[in-house]
Specification:
By secondary structure, this protein is mainly α. The protein has helices spanning 2-25, 29-54, 56-59, 64-81, 84-96, 138-143, 187-201, 216-233, 241-271, and strands spanning 109-114, 117-121, 126-127, 148-154, 167-170, 175-178, 279-284. The strands form three sheets. The protein has a three-stranded parallel sheet with strand order 3-4-7.
């Protein structure tokens, strides 16, 4: 609901700008039609070329070109520019913002979990605790192709973990040594992150959570009405009334279509058509009480 209203608000701003431009430049109806035709032809041609060469419009972040970009450019560049811990935070932020490649997984497979008990998952690959310690990128991690994701470790109280540096690359072995030491924002923060994830992606108990953003759509619709009223009254100068009204109608239709097209492309390439879900686990840890803890037998 919020996404649709934001797109409608952007379209209204485009219409206001375009109408003022037409009046200020005394653009005729014939010129307006030619401009719209040229822009539409260029847009369709660009999308078609992009589809033929990369498959981005149809496959979005699952397209081979998108994966190749990250494997060949983004990841090697990140290793050169960032320390291991900063690279970890950068990767987590990319996943949180849904910019990471979208994994192509199968239609489902059965995993035996006991006698006469099976679990159906999209993939046998999951993510253990340690990458997303506070549950800020759960939806993006499922989009990567993991069938089950474990967040944490989560400690009852916030704690910073070990002193830096605490993460080291093993270049020859293609590995990393992790000595973070249970750095965590604490159980209260993680609980709120889980509530936000449940509100966004659904799940058991999602209907019991009050969404404070439910009135955003109504406010933006009211803004759209004010903008439309402004459009209908700003007709002091320009062409005749019939030409002006026709120009406004064409401009509205054109920018509505362009806003929808841009929104569709954004959702396909960046935001993903629909987030995947899976099995979510939370790894719980304990707070560090001293510098040198003693193991109790």
């Amino acid at each position: 609901m919020t996404t649709c209203c934001c797109t409608s608000s952007r379209a209204s701003r485009f219409r206001v700008w375009f109408i003022l431009f037409c009046h200020s430049s005394n653009m005729t109806l014939h010129q307006l039609r030619n401009t719209i035709l040229q822009t539409t032809t260029l847009t369709i041609g660009s999308i078609a070329l992009l589809e033929v060469t990369t498959h981005l419009p149809s496959q979005g972040r699952a397209a081979p070109a998108y994966h190749s970009l990250f494997d060949s450019v983004v990841t090697p560049l990140g290793r050169r520019l960032f320390t291991p811990e900063n690279a970890h935070h950068l990767a987590l932020e990319v996943v949180r913002r849904n910019w990471a490649p979208r994994g192509r997984v199968g239609t489902g497979m059965e995993v035996e979990i006991g006698e006469e008990r099976k679990l159906v998952v999209d993939s046998p690959i999951g993510l253990a605790a340690g990458f997303d310690k506070d549950g800020v990128a759960i939806g993006g991690l499922f989009d990567l192709g993991f069938s089950f994701v474990e967040i944490g470790s989560v400690t009852p109280l916030p704690q910073p973990g070990n002193a830096k540096p605490r993460s080291f690359r093993l270049v020859e072995d293609k590995g990393v040594i992790n000595r973070f030491g249970f750095n965590s924002e604490g159980a209260d923060v993680v609980r709120e992150n889980l509530r936000e994830y449940r509100k966004e992606f659904g799940g058991r108990g999602a209907g019991l959570i009050i969404d404070e953003r439910s009135n955003v759509g109504q406010l933006e619709e009211s803004d759209d009405e004010v903008a439309d009223d402004h459009d209908s009254t700003s007709d002091e100068n320009g062409d005749s009334k019939i030409v002006r009204e026709t120009s406004i109608h064409l401009a509205q239709s054109f920018f509505d279509s362009m806003a929808w097209t841009l929104g569709w492309a954004w959702s396909r390439v960046v935001k993903s058509p629909q987030h995947r879900t899976g099995i979510l686990g939370v790894n719980l840890g304990k707070n560090k009480t001293s510098e040198d803890e003693v193991k109790v037998s």
